[in-house]
Amino acid sequence: MKKYLFLLIGLLALAVALLWGAWRGQRQEARRLSHNQRALLEDVRLYRTRDSLSAASVERLTLTKKEMESYQADLLGTIEALNVKLRRLESVTDMGTRTRYEVRTVVRDSLVYRDRTGPDTLPCLHFRNPYLELDGCIDSGRFSGRIVSYDTLVTVVHRIPRRFLFFRWGTKAVRLEAVSKNPHTSLEYARYIELKKKRKKR
Q1: What are phi and psi of 200, to 5 degrees?
Q2: SS3 11
Q3: E strand intervals along the chain
Q4: 122: left (phi over 0), alpha (psi -120 to 50) or beta
Q5: What DSSP character marks residue 175?
Q6: Do the Cβ atoms of 58 and 191 come closer than 8 Å?
C-alpha cells in the first residue's frame, strides 16, 4: 500500500513540476511578446547629446528564429550575405544615417595635358577636414572627383529597471543607445533585434 502511495506522490510531484515549468515558460513568452509589442508601437527617439552629436534610442525586439525569417527578410538577406548562420546569431542592429555638409572652398586651376590639343587648364576643388574629403576637377561642365566621409557609430545596450516610488528591481526593457561621432551626420532610424535562444535540453 505504501509503495503505491509513494508512487502516487511521485507522479503528483512530477505533474506539478511539469505544470510549473509550462506555466513559467508561458509567462516568459507572454512577457517577451508584451515587450515586443511596446517596442513596435514606440517610435525611435532621435535626440542630440550635450555636444550636439546626433543620437538615437530604441527598445530591443526579441524574436524567435521563425519570426526573424518571416518578418525581417531584409536583415536576413544581409546576414546571409555575410555568411553568418541564423542559428549562431546573437543580435543585430541597423541604423540609417544622413550626412550633410556645406562645402565652401577655393577653386584652383590645374594644368592637364591632352593628346591632341596639348595643355589645358581645369578648375579643381580640394577640401579636407576631420570628417570630409573632397577632391575633383570640372571638365566640360562635368565634375569628376572623390568624396569621402568619415564617421564612427557608438552603440550602448543597457537595461531599464522596473520602478515603484524609490524602488528599482528587475528589467522593464532593454534599450540601445547609438551616437554618431560625426557632427554633420544625423541618425534617421535605428533597430535592435536579439534572437531568442532555445533552452538546452539536459
Answers
A1: -75, 130
A2: helix
A3: 45-48, 54-59, 61-63, 91-99, 107-114, 118-128, 132-139, 142-149, 153-164, 167-180, 185-195
A4: beta
A5: E
A6: yes
Task: Quickly list DSSP for 42-53.
Answer: SPPEEEE-TT--
CA distances from 136 to 113, 124, 127, 198 (A): 16, 6, 9, 54
HSE-CB of 132 using CA atoms within 13 angstroms = 15
The residues, ordered by sequence, that sit 6+ positions from 61 with a Cβ below 8 Å of its Cβ are: 36, 39, 40, 191, 192, 193, 194
Q: d(Cα 34, Cα 79) in Å, to the nearest integer?
A: 26
* pLDDT interval class at 202 (50, 70, 90): very low
What are the φ and ψ backbone dihedral angles of 142, each rounded to 5 degrees? -115, 135
- For 170, the 3-state DSSP assignment is strand
Please name every residue paired with 173 in a beta bridge, in sequence order, or none if there are none: 160
Give which of 40, 48, 20, 89 is closest to 186, Cα–Cα.
48
pLDDT in tens, 3-58: 666 666 676 776 766 666 666 666 666 777 777 777 777 788 899 998 889 999 98
Asked if residue 125 lies in contact with residue 134, where contact means CB atoms within 8 angstroms, the answer is: yes
